[in-house]
Amino acid sequence: MRLPRLAPARERILTMQEVEALAERLGPDGDLVLTMAFLGLRWGELAGLQVRDRVTVPGQGLRLQRTVLADSHDGSLYQETLKGRRARTVPLPARIVPIVAKWAEGKEPGAWLFSAPRGGPLSEANWRRSVGWTAAKKATGHTTLRPHDLRHTAASVWLGVGADPKVVQRVLGHATASMTMDLYGHLIDQNLWDAAKRLGGTTGGTKRDREQQESPRRRSARGMTCDDERSRLSESNRRPIHYE
Predict the structure, then answer these.
(1) DSSP states of 165-221 as a string?
(2) What is the pLDDT of residues 130-180, one digit of tens each?
(3) Residue 149 DSSP label
(4) Residues in Cβ contact with 35 at an 8 Å cutoff, skipping those fewer than 6 apart
(5) Is the pTM of this model over 0.85?
(6) Nearest-5° angle of CA 115, CA 117, CA 118?
(7) Distance (Å, rounded) from C-alpha 16 to C-alpha 18?
């Protein structure tokens, strides 16, 4: 029997301030942390990116179409199609555009975008050792943090800014939007109350909330008495002098 997926623990979801702090501790390699935290990439998807995967239409983005995995026996790297064989395009937030441009500069189209120091694709295990991942994550107070957990942070960020679950599904590469909601639906609880406040009286917003959203003209009209309204109509219907 296949067990249902569990929602990620809250302690593995970083705030953007914590992401920036972690990235700063890792120096130039902090660019990878930011990219994963904003785009929700799996490590293999990040390692599998090539310079030619950059797209500009309809906007800046990355076309994900391969993954780089490590052999479970000897750790050697090999290419594979994406999970579920579903290629996808993810948009680049403004924060990530210059990062991608910097890592692509001077490279051939078929070169790895985030390449290892000696060329070739990045190994997660080697990268974690070389950048001092263990010390960096302890310094942020997240001792159990894995690079993969930055994917959960990305889901939190996208849902937090009000992105539709279908959009988040496409960004993360889930099979369905219901899978996205099963994993991350608990992150949008606050959005429910924000939406209710915007709807106002239909969902229990206070009278003060509604009055603050109401235009001055409408408030003035609402305050008119019946006599005021009849007088206004009488004035508007009065014939001009020359009409007779």
Answers:
(1) HHHHHHHHT-S-HHHHHHHHGGGGHHHHHHHHHHHGGGGT--HHHHHHHS-HHHHHH
(2) 999 999 999 989 999 999 999 998 988 888 888 888 888 888 888 787 877
(3) G
(4) 41, 46, 96, 99, 100, 114
(5) no
(6) 95
(7) 5
